[in-house]
């Protein structure tokens, strides 16, 4: 499992651990909802909505601190912009994001 790097969140929150925990909680709640919505839009071939959701996911994915995952999100976004189906690529992305969220939740418990 890829390990989340909290450096970007630490920088953003200026080391305020409570604010950092709040942001992490927001990510943990919002990203799964966005992934579910994205799946619906993939199934209906709604490329415009897919692009919007992938754009909305950008900061959350970047805050996970896994550079290759951010690149993968960007490539999916580029495909939707050209109306290229992303279903086969999306499965791997979703799995990586879910694993990263699990690691993020574990790291959140260690923040004091």
UniProtKB/TrEMBL annotation:
Alphabetic keyword roster: Phosphoprotein
Gene3D superfamilies: HPT domain
PROSITE patterns: HPT
Domain HPt per the UniProt entry, residue ranges: 16-112
InterPro entries for the chain: HPT_dom_sf (IPR036641), Sig_transdc_His_kin_Hpt_dom (IPR008207)
UniProt entry tagged with the keyword Cell membrane: no
Protein name: HPt domain-containing protein
């Amino acid at each position: 499992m890829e390990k989340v790097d909290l450096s970007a969140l630490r920088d953003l929150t200026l080391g305020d651990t409570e604010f950092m925990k709040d942001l992490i909680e927001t990510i943990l709640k919002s990203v799964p909802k966005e992934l579910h919505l994205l799946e619906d839009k993939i199934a209906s071939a709604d490329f415009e909505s897919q692009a919007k959701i992938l754009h909305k996911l950008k900061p959350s994915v970047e805050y996970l601190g896994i550079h290759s995952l951010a690149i993968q999100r960007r490539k999916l976004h580029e495909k939707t912009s050209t109306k290229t189906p992303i279903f086969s690529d999306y499965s791997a992305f979703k799995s990586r994001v879910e694993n990263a969220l699990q690691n993020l939740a574990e790291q959140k418990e260690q923040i004091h």
